[in-house]
Amino acid sequence: MGEFLNFISNNLADFWTYTGFANATVGHLVMILVGLVFIYLAVAHEFEPMLLIPIGFGMLIGNIPFNMEAGLKVGIYEEGSVLNILYQGVTSGWYPPLIFLGIGAMTDFSALISNPKLMLVGAAAQFGIFGAYMIALALGFDPMQAGAIGIIGGADGPTAIFLSSKLAPNLMGAIAVSAYSYMALVPVIQPPIMKLLTTKKERLIKMKAPRAVSQTEKIIFPILGFLMTAFIVPSGLPLLGMLFFGNLLKESGVTKRLAETARGPLIDIVTILIGVTVGCSTQADQFLRGSSIKIFALGALSFIIATTFGVLFVKFFNLFLKEGNKINPLIGNSGVSAVPDAARVSNHVGLEYDKTNYLLMHAMGPNVAGVIGSAVAAGILLGFLG
What we know:
Elements: H1 2-18, H2 20-23, H3 26-44, H4 49-62, H5 82-91, H6 95-106, H7 110-114, H8 118-124, H9 127-138, H10 143-150, H11 157-167, H12 172-184, H13 186-197, H14 200-203, H15 215-232, H16 237-252, H17 256-280, H18 284-287, H19 290-318, H20 341-353, H21 360-385
């Protein structure tokens, strides 16, 4: 009987060493709490639930403590584990182009085609990327890390993942979570900046209704857009190619099944995989570092710079436009590529001051230009630093 009790106690002791309770640290508990906050924000406040719920639950999965020496192959950083295999889509950079394929298949470029000068507004917002890049260099990050961090200012999670997987794989978890977090917080961060930088008169500017765009123009645009941008920045080929290809599937009118698959089941599946694996990558021992705090601070700063430059550029541009052709500066924020949330923010703030001033369709121009702009900016950084 005594031997049996010893056997039970020894095995229970061994079992205890494999449990999460025995291996838990304060860091694990902190990251689990962060994951719960993400889920709460998604459910209670509907902040980008399609992103924050997968990322938040991924944080829970990635921060369940286990005995690292047991060779269980359950952690995302353990080679050969299921999570590690799924994570290869992030580390190898092939999830983001698939996301861009879906984005292209659901994006209507009519607002940009009808008013091409709005592309300049989208381009101006990309200053947030290069501003954050310079500040990151000043804080001691090397050029490749600074480039990967700067792309957060584009408010484009897939682009941030694609670029960081090439330039700074060791910082990818923090960069990806930061990018997606600020995408979700667009309605919180941008309105105060927009109101601070504009006058009441400027907020009341009514823009001309966009002209009708023919189907021929919609078909030609992705072909010409791809050729122009890809020849300028070949290093952005995976993102730009899939974005414009997806749009051609949508606009051609003869590939409806492919377009529906790209903007429906395909992008949904990849969003789930990218969200969960990015969340899992926030494993406490890998994520809770001083560099992560700096990355989140720089991400917020780059986002503020992007919004500021977008609004100020419209105010400057209006100096050269005739009365009646002026652009409402409230759409300057939409140059970041958080589609369509940034455009919705422009519209919402505009309606606060004039219930009849609908800016959504106008704001979609720089918003979709921002998607192209962030991919081009990523290509430029990859070309120079990669």
